[in-house]
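QA checklist item 7 of 12: single-chain prediction sanity check.
[x] sequence parsed
[x] length recorded as 104
[x] structure emitted
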Amino acid sequence: MKNRYKFVFGNKPLTLTTDKDNLFMEEVERVAREKYDAIKRNLPEADNETIAILMAINTLSMQLSREIIFEETERELERLRTEKIMALKEKNNQLELELNEEQK
């Protein structure tokens, strides 16, 4: 279900169509305002377009960093799964050998 979330950012009224609820979007709005204010403090001469571009680039940078970390975590998880499966197979083989020895 699509949600139309309306708010004013700067002096610009905006409407976002999203699948997120209002509570989530209020948090997004809050974070956006914080990021905007932080950039504006550091670059008081920057116009709104420049701030918007910097916010977008910062967001994409964070997203890329998180995707890299996620991929590294997925690789490590796969390595650990493989390691565990190999250990279980080895244990199973050992138990089969012991069982065969007992049956002789």
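[x] summary fact logged: Strands lie at 3-9, 12-18.
[ ] second reviewer sign-off
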